TrEMBL record:
PROSITE patterns: SQUALEN_PHYTOEN_SYN_1. This is Squalene synthase-like. It holds the Pfam family SQS_PSY. Transmembrane segments: none annotated. The keyword Transferase applies. One of its GO terms (biological process) is farnesyl diphosphate metabolic process. Keywords: Transferase. GO terms for molecular function: squalene synthase [NAD(P)H] activity. One of its GO terms (cellular component) is endoplasmic reticulum membrane. InterPro entries: Isoprenoid_synthase_dom_sf (IPR008949), Squ/phyt_synthse (IPR002060), Squalene/phytoene_synthase_CS (IPR019845), Trans_IPPS_euk-type (IPR044844). The keyword Transferase applies.
């Protein structure tokens, strides 16, 4: 990230890509849908993700809408999982049942009455407060894919709320389910749109976890430090 004129002089080759990205971002924001419910979704997408709105601009409208909602729903799951102020039993219940409520436009009223977010940004709070605006019911053939991945990711998140990651197999299981399968199911959205031959059995084993909840097996980090907190 370039923060000053000195940085520009030090890394001149980065200037053009940064300017191009800035122009692309401005272009994307100018094309936020005029309908209030879709406008909310794309506005939130721009606020909580730096790169994702740019990456989906070239998709045709219905697939782009589906990918937008796909991202927002899974980000909502992340917000619940990461917030340490939510009681464990409440959090597990929310994560396990999240997929069921995608079809319930009134759910957020009761949901927000038990959910008080203390982590994340104000934009995260707005997303959760207005979750029913994610217009899931307008997505047609894409609904099943999004419901399916929400159910799988939510159940694995709930499992590891109570289960400490102690071995590499645990780490791989968590990463594969909350990151790898997300990529695989994203390909299914493309398939549902009529684009064929994109599905793969490739597994993805990478994810990012907030510093307050480090999912690193001791077998790995004890090679370098005695206490995990040293790495925070």
């Amino acid at each position: 990230k370039i923060r000053s004129f000195e940085d520009i002089l030090r890394y001149p080759n980065d200037l053009y890509p940064l300017l191009k990205m800035k122009m692309t971002t401005m272009h994307a924001k100018k094309h936020i849908p005029s309908e209030s419910h879709w406008g909310f979704c794309y506005t939130m997408l721009h606020k909580i993700s730096r790169s994702f709105p740019l990456l989906i601009q070239g998709l045709h409208t219905d697939l782009r809408d589906a990918v937008c909602i796909y991202y927002l729903v899974l980000r909502a799951l992340d917000i619940v999982e990461d917030d340490t102020s939510i009681a464990t039993d409440v959090k597990i219940h929310i994560l396990m049942d999240f997929y069921r409520h995608l079809y319930d436009t009134e759910w957020n009223s009761s949901f927000m009455s038990i959910l008080y977010l203390t982590s994340g940004t104000n934009d995260h709070k707005v997303l959760m407060d207005e979750f029913h605006h994610t217009v899931f019911l307008e997505l047609g053939n894409y609904q099943e894919v999004i419901e399916d991945i929400t159910m799988m990711v939510g159940s694995v998140m709930a499992k590891f709320i109570c289960k400490e990651i102690g071995i590499i197999d645990d780490y791989d299981e968590y990463c594969h389910n909350v990151a790898g399968l997300v990529g695989l199911r994203l390909l299914k959205l493309f398939h549902a749109s009529g684009i064929k031959d994109l599905l793969s059995n490739t597994f993805f084993h990478s994810t990012s976890v907030p510093k307050s909840r480090m999912f690193w097996p001791p077998k790995i980090w004890r090679k370098y430090v005695d206490r995990l907190e040293v790495l925070l």
